[in-house]
Amino acid sequence: MPKKINLDMASVEPREQRLGTIIAWDGNSEELHEQSGYELRGQKERGRKGCGGNCRLCELSGPFTQGAVCSEQMVECQAGNVRDAVLIQHSPIGCGGGQVEYNAIYRNGLAMRGYKVENIRIISTNLKESDMVFGAADKLRQSIDDAWERYKPQAIFVASSCATGIIGEDIESITDEKEAELGIPVVPLACEGFRSKHWSTGFDATQHGILRQIVRRNPQKKQEDLVNVINLWGSDVFTPLLKNLNLRVNYVVDLASVEELAQMSEAAATVGFCYTLSSYLAAALEQHFGVPEVKAPMPYGFAGTDAWLRELARVTHREDLVEPFIQAEHERVKPRVEELKKKLKGVKGFVATGSAYAHGLIQVMRELGIEVDGSLTFHHDPVYDSGDTQEDSLGYLNQHYGKVSNFHVSNRQQYQLYAFLQQVKPDFLLIRHNGLAPLASRLGIPAAPLGDEHIAVGYDGMINLGETILEILAHKKFHDDIRKHVKLPYKKWWLKQKDAYILAKHPELIEDDEEAEGYRAEERVEVGAHA
Question: pTM of this prediction?
Fold first, then answer.
């Protein structure tokens, strides 16, 4: 299994180093799982099938990036969403561009959970050219003082940036100084964009800081009915679900208070809706604070939800409650699922989301009888932080629901999505990060941006997702009209390509016009010969 999480260091270890995360791969889901060697990660024997912890899963390295998200943005959407805290971005003002989007998400999340709706509390130190030359320590001190005077927060987070990483700004010394002065946690978060190729390291950076400086080290009590639920901003689906086991929910990190973060060490267990998000925090809570992580398939579809509930019940000693609940839920939900299956018969879907979340969505779609032979995940973790095979979400998908024939890993590259969609020609697209949705619309494919990431969780999740898909399919004509009246921003040569990774395999096609033209000429000859 992966090595124990180190909370003595101020900086989190990037996912590439810790888990072997990759951002580009092409094949089918069974091949990806086999090459990942999940069950062999961490074993000492060399020369065995799979990586065994001794090598990295090979990734396709493209010559450029059309669009992506960085770790600092994920800190914005995590630390910036703690209700009674302030996030300071020690950065140029451009790094705060995501504040507008995350403010809207934060306000919507507060409304969905029944909290007072208010604006996000994020401050930028607004670094200038002179700060890059002479340093900006005093600017950071002043920003911390301003945050304290303006908001009187229970904690202050300080996010680094590429700029502060380049000049070697000593953020940790300043936060230590201010923490002693103000008497509240002042938490440095190492999240420079160049620190990791994948933005999910930003989740880990926020959670690392919380574990080090906010979670109670020696809790005086344990709350045997409290469960940490690691989530984003979605609707409250876990409270009614866990209530049947006489359990209470402690939502973290987004929309939590500082006190709710502190009490994570008092909980009876930790769960999540997506291992991409929950892996680091849940594993560290078990390793350092003795809070068991529920190691089970994610709660998607009948089989996954059943297994998840049974393991949660076992960990919290509620086995006597779980079986009657599961039986009652099957009897309640199955008739409606069967109705949805009839309506969705023959429909083909495509998923484009984060890694583990995509695995869960595909499970639910196949429960609904939807054909899924294509998917795009924005990254792939060959293993999660616990190393437990019960959390092998890709392996669970393959074993219980069958492989996905066209399974792609691509870090939100629009130019590649065109080829992916052409391969399988789906009837609709499920997506979490909306930047790719307009391209699908231009191809006449309706897309459902899943703003509520909990929509597919649990037994009701199958009904919720099925009804959402029917709703977006009802707007197919609108997207067909878009397709007829817009032009794609790509050359005809690219639109004819069947391999979305051709530029990764042949970077000379964009580096050298003569070579590129020669390749195109060879392709024309080959096409002519086949014709």
Answer: 0.91
